[in-house]
Amino acid sequence: MVKTSNNLLWYSILFAILLGLGYSIILASQSIQYTWRWERIVPYLINTEPKPILSPYDGTVTVSANADAIMVSSDDGESAFEVKVFSQLEVEDGDQVFEGDVIASLSEWRLGPIANGLLMTLKISIVSLFFAVVIGLFVGLARISSNPILKHLSMLYVELVRGTPLLVQIFIFYFFIGTVLELDRFTAGAAALSVFAAAYVAEIIRSGIQSVPVGQMEAARSLGMTYVQAMVYIILPQAFKRTLPPMAGQFITLIKDSSLVSVISITDLTKAGREVVSGTFAPFEVWFTVALLYLLLTGSLSWLVNKLEKRMASSD
């Protein structure tokens, strides 16, 4: 009974703090005389406005008897543009139209620029996470290798990457390496993020492997396992459990760091937000929305890692 009362008290305090934070934001907006217009953001998330269908050239309109198809015949008689799917007819049979004129409209739901930016951020983050783990695993194993070449090259890679800003690395990958190898923007951005995150993943994996007692490897080798078999079946599974929390933190950081690829004109969530701000003049609504979407991505990842951590703990 006492514990329940204490929990109720603390939850009440938490609610009061959150309520105070929200009220402080309202007071701040009033002090700068800012008018909130959240309705401006909706079309940039989900656009429900009819999509215009334009005439590709100058010509004459022909409407079918049932008004279920439109054809624009070019003035030279060599081309014909037919439309069978539309919601609203904007011309009549026999009308003369010019290139770019609206001949019909189609009602459909389309993703707005912010939603498309979210998908781009999700895409580049997933690709970068995958290659960061692959590269980081090999570099982490090289860091504990007895081969001096592998050990020192991996150490040089980790120190070089961790010691230089990600923004500089993105520029190098895009303007230098990307030019030599003819990489597109997405590939260059994903490669820069992968190489940057892999340096941190390598150190996490190295520390995880070294945290496993040495006797585990010795016992596996005494049972006749090779070094690779012992590492794959004995050491790495134990190291993975121990490195899961810091690995999740690094993945979350990578998702947020992906906003830097906007400097090479990749329309991710951050760049889409900047473009929407310039068109709506609603900076607070846009950036709060962008922040919430980033929070959705990182929160989902945290939830998945937490579920995986509990499942692995229950399997022990």
From TrEMBL:
Positions of the ABC transmembrane type-1 domain: 118-305
InterPro entries recorded: AA_ABC_transptr_permease_3TM, ArtM/GltK/GlnP/TcyL/YhdX-like, MetI-like, MetI-like_sf
Transmembrane portions of the chain: 7-28, 124-144, 156-177, 183-202, 223-240, 286-305
Protein name (database record): Putative glutamine transport system permease protein GlnP
GO cellular component terms attached to this protein's record: ATP-binding cassette (ABC) transporter complex
Record flagged with keyword rRNA processing: no
Keyword set, alphabetical order: Amino-acid transport, Cell membrane, Membrane, Transmembrane, Transmembrane helix, Transport
GO biological process terms on file: amino acid transport
